[in-house]
Amino acid sequence: MSDGRYLAHGIGGAKDLPISPELAIAGAVAALTVSFTVLAVAWRSPRYDAATSGRAAPYLQTVVDATAFRVVLRVLGMAVFLWGAYAAVLGQDLLTNPVFGMFYVWWWVGLVPLSLLLGPVWKAISPVRTINLAFARISGSDPDQGVFRYPERLGVWPAAIGLYAFVWMELVYRFSTELGPVRLWIATYVAVMLLGGALFGNTFYERADPFEVYSSLVAKLSPWARRDGQLIVRSPLANLDSVTVRPGLVAVMAVLFGSTAFDSFKESSPWVRYIQSSEVSVSLLNNLALLAFCVGVGLIFAVGTAATGVGPGTSRWSLPNQFAHSVVPIIVGYIVAHYLTYFVEVGQLTLIQASDPLGEGQDLLGTGDWSVNYWLSYHPTLLANTKVLAVVIGHVVGVVAAHDRAIRLLPKRHQLTGQLPLLLAMVAFTVGGLYLLFAA
């Protein structure tokens, strides 16, 4: 850990991408334009309906709804949490402490592949949900019911704030790799979640837990879904159509997307040169830049979706939240492009370090003598193609999701022309994202 890998989240920039950036950007823009053109010609009516799509999976539902299965998942989530807490409280304040990898790699980045494969996994393993459930059982209360009803106007704004607090801690706070601040952040998170669960019940976790909201959104690209309690299997695009529109949804998307873009930007040569030559505090500059990226992404998307004709009785400023689901595949594409090497390699390193949580030379998990496999880093062409493809596919899927929603929402005369501002916004995201990927 002393080699600074925790700080190099991109582990990827120009050195990992032995292909022409101009060619990659031109190809990505062409893919978006062609996709939109094909959709405009061949896709004239909505095809995804969350209320009717999908097939039941009764045999699989018997397994996943079994009490034993749910208990195993909760025990697993609590065990990992307690192991991390053990390392955080009693371990050494060194980067070899596994709590840093568990916090920044397993928890933050690992939720994406797990949610893509398994659905809303954080909801199933969340230790704060488990603790809240235990308190409810002891007191004889219902964990779904709190003292108060969760205010609808809050939507997922608390989750957006929580996500921003995490990315600020990871990307801007200069003591992010010291044990004390990480312990404080986790303790604050747990305290707020338990208090919120007591006051508003499980609804609080669905809308205010930053990691549950994050995991549940990514899970909309998995084939697994629930409808009226029934487990169904359906197209990820049909599943994506079922994202519930709530206040603050655009803010959540903006934080997730903007922070990933900023993580690339802060490693770029122009920014590094600027902050080195500036007389302004580096911390202040990074704080302002992170905020600017998140707010900028939100504004570009909001303007791109609102700048269209709307039907009578519909506010154009209601459209950004209606179209926010189309940003989910773009976010996933950028996370894959930006964090793939980091997750695979530092994730392995964390598993090795987790076997010695106190830094005393123990091998409690039997993984202490394992070594990190750097196969991905040794195949830069494959890595480059994977990163560019992840960005391009994410944007193309986003265009498809936005087009289907536009056909349903917009008046007939604006169904195609009304999408042009959003298409331009997505082209800007593509060009900017790939530029930062190469510049980092």
From TrEMBL:
Top-level taxon in the UniProt lineage: Bacteria
Alphabetical UniProt keywords: Membrane, Transmembrane, Transmembrane helix
Residue ranges crossing the lipid bilayer per the database entry: 23-43, 71-91, 103-122, 154-173, 185-205, 243-262, 288-311, 323-344, 382-402, 422-439
Official protein name in the record: Fenitrothion hydrolase
Biological classification of the source: Bacteria, Bacillati, Actinomycetota, Actinomycetes, Propionibacteriales
